[in-house]
Design a protein that fits this description.
By secondary structure, this protein is α+β, with helices and mostly antiparallel strands. The chain is built from twelve helices and five strands. It has a five-stranded antiparallel sheet. β2 and β3 form a beta hairpin. α6 packs across α7.
Length: 335
């Protein structure tokens, strides 16, 4: 579910699909067990629509400011900080899309658009400032052993002195978690350059969703007893992955960032598939289902309908996400 109205789709035959899904479930287990390798590395291309169109060119440009960052990493930081909200303000007075506190902005804010004003609320200044600050931190710790990007992120979290003192990422749980979170989250903003690994939990998620076929839709439904075991679209996908130990965010547009994004012709059963009226902005996603193969998904489509099989090849098909445990854990609890 998002704050937008649920997507209305055409009905597909459920009865004929039951055996079809069981075959696919077995196939997912086999695929997950036999394919090896990861998503590859080194890509700095942004995944389709992952960054709102208004900021994509800025992130792409400034994400290449120095070797320690790339556009996907910069996007991950902005998403983690504010969910790409230029008006975000935290209780600690962090401000804007990059969440600079006033003291840090006074020292590190730059006039990114050359209008003579450094405005923390203007993404044209704040996004270049975030990249510039990252690169400045990277320069402080450039002689520290280890990975330059991880050292930069550690300096962002714990300070450059700690990185220099410990000769790399310091042994602070918070800092190590921050480094892992951002580097993992970056994978959901990068356009994969090789085949994406199948999800180990995909078959179980499909099995759960399959058992809910025929259940009446409920807006805001999480499948709880007081709701009669009913779901909306993202409630169903969340519960399906909860059943295999992977905790997804509640709304569809946040679920999009739970892993890398396979192309349409690379989809595997268990991938989440997303739909939107704005194909340039993942924050506008309003519907999600679980892909089962053959061009079909299981989804909870709309009020008055039941959980069913529906085709995915529609004009509002946005893209897909191959959920990973680390990807789900890296997502902020609120953006």
């Amino acid at each position: 579910m998002t704050v937008r109205k649920a997507w209305i789709v055409a009905t597909a035959a459920v009865g004929a699909g039951m055996g079809f899904v069981m075959v696919l479930v077995v196939g997912v287990y086999l695929v997950a067990g036999n394919l090896a390798g990861g998503i590859g590395g080194g890509s700095v291309g942004l995944a389709k629509g992952a960054v709102p169109a208004a900021y994509q060119s800025l992130v792409q440009k400034w994400g290449n400011l120095c070797d320690a960052i790339n556009p996907a990493l910069l996007a991950a930081q902005l998403y983690q900080e504010s969910g790409f909200n230029p008006n975000a303000k935290s209780p600690a007075q962090a401000q804007g899309i990059a969440q600079f506190i006033p003291g840090t902005w006074a020292t590190h804010g730059v006039d990114g658009d050359g209008d003579g004003v450094r405005d923390v609320w203007n993404p044209n200044d704040a996004i270049p400032s975030a990249a510039s600050y990252d690169c400045e931190l990277a320069s402080y710790v450039k002689n520290a052993p280890g990975n330059a990007t991880e050292n930069m992120l550690a300096a962002y979290n714990a300070g450059a002195y700690a990185v220099i003192k410990y000769g790399g990422v310091p042994p602070y749980a918070e800092t190590r978690n921050y480094v892992k979170t951002i580097t993992t989250l970056a994978k959901s903003f990068a356009a994969p350059v090789t085949r994406v690994d199948p999800s180990k939990q995909a078959a179980g998620a499909i099995t759960y969703a399959q058992k809910k076929l025929g259940t009446l839709y409920l807006w805001g439904g999480n499948g709880t007893a007081d709701q009669g075991g009913r779901f909306d679209c993202s409630g169903l996908t969340k519960a399906s992955y909860d059943s295999v130990g992977v905790t997804l965010p509640r709304v569809a547009n946040d679920q999009y960032n739970a892993g890398p994004h396979p192309k349409r012709d690379e989809l595997l059963p268990g991938d989440l598939v997303f739909f939107s009226d704005d194909l340039t902005n993942s924050r506008a996603i309003r519907h999600v289902g679980i892909y089962v193969g053959g061009g079909y998904m299981i989804d909870a489509p709309r009020p008055g309908a039941v959980i069913r099989f529906d085709p995915i090849d529609t004009p509002d098909y946005f893209g897909a996400t191959r959920v990973t445990e680390d990807g789900a854990k890296a997502l902020p609890t609120s953006v």
